[in-house]
Amino acid sequence: MTDIPDIPLEQIQQRVVAMWMGSFYGSSGYVARKLGKKGLREFQDQGAHQVAATFKQLGLAEPRDVALAMATNDKNLFGSIIEVSEEEGAVEIKRIRCGLMEGAKSFARIGASLMAKEHCKTCVEGHWKKVFSDLKLNLEVEHTDDGCIMKITRQ
Questions:
Q1: Disulfide: which of 3, 43, 61, 93 matches 31 by Cβ 3.0-4.6 Å?
Q2: Residue 105's pLDDT is what?
C-alpha cells in the first residue's frame, strides 16, 4: 500500500481558496453567459439568502455571533489573518490579510482575468451586504491593500 502524504495547513488553505474561487467564479461565469446580468444577480441573491437562512437556523443573529462565524471560516478555511473587535453598538471584522484576495491576486498572476478589486466588490456588494440585509444588520466596509474592515451594526 502506498502512503498518502499529509499536506501542511498553509497548502490546504491555498487549495481550499483555489477550489472555492474556481467553483464560485466558474458557476458565476456560466450563469452570466447563459442567463445574462439579471440571471447572475438572481444567482448571487439566492446564495446570499441561503447564507442568511443558515445563520438564522444556527441562531446567529447578533453582530458579534455573525462576525465570529465569518472570522472563524476566513481564518481556518482560507488562511486569512483576521481580528474581531467590539465597540459600543458595533462589531468590526478586520481582515489584515484576506486569503480570498490573495487567491484573486494569485489567479491574476497566472493570467486569469479575475482582479482582486473586482473580487472585493463581488464579495461585499454581491454577497455580504445582501446577507446582512436579510439578517437586519448594517454593513460598512473600508477596503485596504490586503483585505478590508467590515463594521457590523444593528438596523
A1: 43
A2: 86
CA distance 63 to 76: 20
- CA pair distance 98, 87, nearest whole angstrom: 22
CATH topology of domain 9-154: Muramoyl-pentapeptide Carboxypeptidase; domain 2 (3.30.1380)
The amino acid present at 44, given as its one-letter code, is Q
Return the domain boundaries, the chain: 9-154
Distance CA 25, CA 7 (A): 25
Q: What is the tens place of the pLDDT at every residue in 42-73?
A: 999 999 999 999 999 999 989 999 999 999 99
List Cβ neighbours of 93 (8 Å cut-off, separation of 6 or more).
Answer: 67, 70, 71, 82, 83, 84, 149, 150, 152
